[in-house]
Amino acid sequence: MLPNLTRQTTVTVPGESVCKKWGAINPDTGERACLQWQTSPPTTTVTVALYRGSSLTYDSRGRADTSIDPAGLTTVTAYPASAGFKKVVTVAGTRTTQFLHDAAGRLKAVTDALGQVAAYGYDASNRLVSVSQSDI
């Protein structure tokens, strides 16, 4: 279940007091005293942003592990103990694509929603040298 990503802000500004009726000028100080105050009521403004925002969570080591964008696209990143990392992208809760990266951060394999796998190979200079795809 997706969290509610709607951003709503409520701001209440307290009422303002103004002098409605002034008294005579004090001859000693040259100032006037207010005889009657008028206070305006507080104003509340509620704003709902058109941009629904995104959600991002982190694992215990401070690495991003789950993100949800405003359209509901969920990306889960796993960091296996071996090496590299794996990203799983889910659209609308049903279609999942997995991206597997090696320890150098290079894309190693992609598994699409149909289970088809594309594997990528690199040479010693980190140049892409092969792409193979399974047929299902």
Describe this structure in words.
It comes from Mesoterricola silvestris. This is RHS repeat protein. Pfam families: RHS_repeat (PF05593). InterPro entries: RHS_repeat, YD. This protein is mainly β. The chain has two domains: 8-48, no CATH class; 55-133. 0% of the residues lie in helices and 54% in strands. The protein has strands spanning 8-13, 17-25, 32-39, 43-48, 55-58, 64-68, 74-78, 85-91, 95-101, 107-111, 117-122, 128-133. The protein has an eight-stranded antiparallel sheet with strand order 5-6-7-8-9-10-11-12, with no helix packed on it. A two-stranded antiparallel sheet has the order 1-4. The protein has a two-stranded antiparallel sheet with strand order 2-3.
Distance between the termini: 31 Å
Total domain units: 2
Helix segment tally: 0
Q: Average pLDDT, to the nearest integer?
A: 79
Helix and strand run = EEEEEEEEEEEE
Please estimate the helix content.
Answer: under 10%
User: What is the strand arrangement across the widest sheet?
Assistant: 5-6-7-8-9-10-11-12
Secondary structure: number of strands: 12
Overall 3D geometry? rod-shaped
- How would a textbook summarize the main sheet? 8 strands, antiparallel
Low-confidence stretches: 1-5
Radius of gyration: 31 Å
> Pairing-aware structural class of the strands and helices?
mainly beta
Strand content: over 45%
Protein name: RHS repeat protein
Pfam family, one: RHS_repeat
InterPro entries: RHS_repeat (IPR031325), YD (IPR006530)
